[in-house]
Design goal:
The protein contains 6 helices and 5 strands; from the N terminus they run αββαββαβααα. The chain is of the alpha+beta class and 133 residues long.
Length: 133
């Protein structure tokens, strides 16, 4: 396989999305995976910082609603919610929010370890290269 050029990488549409039925809301919603920049901002939002600017804990307030505000989009890929709308989104049925958050985490490459890593509780990073695809 040939190595990609920067132009090929820049032009590639690697956006992952999935339409998910939500019977409780009477239809379907579209979830899109976050960009690397959005994912990093979301992960940073999971942290609480002390006066010295160092992480001191985890911010779980509306964690899944904050994620969904970044991932729920319309047919044209435009966000349905802004970060200012998180409280309203978080007020919806918790089971629905959790079900959608599972899909949003998968599409964005966020595993359950994301919170552990934000807390600094994950094990040492794996070294070496992997041969798995």
């Amino acid at each position: 396989m040939a190595l990609l050029t920067r132009a090929q990488i820049d032009e590639a549409d690697d956006t992952a999305f999935e339409d998910v039925p939500v019977s409780e809301w009477g239809g379907e919603v579209r979830l899109v995976g976050m960009s690397g920049t959005d994912r990093n901002a979301y992960q940073t939002s999971l942290l609480r910082f002390g006066p010295d600017g160092k992480p001191i804990g985890v911010n779980m307030d509306n964690r899944d609603a904050r994620l969904l505000a970044r991932c729920l989009v319309d047919e044209d890929g435009q966000p349905l919610y802004t970060l200012k709308d998180v409280a309203a989104l978080g007020a919806k049925n918790g089971a629905v929010i959790e079900r959608l958050a599972v899909v949003a985490r998968r599409l964005s490459g966020l595993g359950e370890r994301a919170v552990e890593e934000a807390e600094g509780n994950s094990g040492p990073a794996q070294s070496g290269s992997s041969t798995s695809a």
